[in-house]
Task: structure prediction
Amino acid sequence: MNTGSDGVDEVAMTDDEKAEQPLGSRAPEFVKARRALHVSWQVGVFVVGLAVVVAGVIMLPLPGPGWLVIFGGMAIWATEFVWAQLVLRWTKRKVTEATQRALDPAVRRRNIILTTVGLVIIGALCAVYVWKFGFEMPWNIKE
Result:
C-alpha cells in the first residue's frame, strides 16, 4: 500500500486491473442524478456513436480507416452502454491473443516459408506464360 502526498492510501494496481474498469455509465454525476437528462445523454451518445460506426462501415469498401473508425464508434458507445463495454473488452482480448500468436517465432517462420513458396510458384507460372506466349495479354492471344 502506498501513501500519497495528500495522506490518502493508494493501492497499487496491475495493468489488468487498470484496464478492467467497472461496467456502466461514465456520464457525469449531475447527469446521472436526473432521469430525463440521463436518457437524453444516452440518446446523444448513441446517435454520435451510430454516426461514427456508419461512417466506418461506409469506409470499409472505400479508402479510409474503416475498422479503426468502427472501433472508435464502439468506444463512444462504451462510455455509456454495458453491452458495448463488453464487446470492446472481448475485442481487445482477441486482438491481444492474435498479436501474441503472430509474434510467435514458429508462426512467423511458417508464414515466411509459405509466402516464399507461393511467390516462387507465381513466378514460375508467369515465366511459363511469358515463354509460351511472350508479353501478350491473354485476351489478345490467337490460338
